[in-house]
Design a protein that fits this description.
There is one protein chain. The protein is of the alpha+beta class and about 80 residues long. It has one domain. The chain is built from two helices and three strands, in the order E-E-H-E-H. Strands 1-2-3 form a three-stranded mixed beta sheet, covered by helices on one side. Helix 1 links the parallel strand 2 and strand 3.
Length: about 80
């Protein structure tokens, strides 16, 4: 996930992608076998724009709520949050 304008590129990543020092963040992973990522091409475009220079880059670090993973069916079955 991310966004791009003439002023810069905004990347969204997870807190788990920060290194131990908190200074570096992984913004691209190797593709998972058997899984496609609909946002991977967009992420690559954003990174290429940053690598070419002339744009500011920003990262939003997302933090998951809770430590448990749930599958899609569990998520869909949850009642809406008011």
């Amino acid at each position: 996930m991310g966004a791009r304008s003439d002023l810069g590129v905004l990347l969204t990543t997870w807190k788990d992608d920060l290194d131990d020092s908190g200074r570096f963040v992984r913004v691209l992973r190797w593709p998972s076998q058997g899984r496609s990522s609909s946002g991977r091409n967009e992420r690559m475009d954003h990174l290429r724009a940053l690598w070419s220079g002339g744009l500011a880059g920003y990262a939003v670090i997302a933090v998951a709520q809770g430590d448990e993973f749930m599958d899609v069916e569990e998520f869909i079955a949850q009642p809406p949050v008011a």
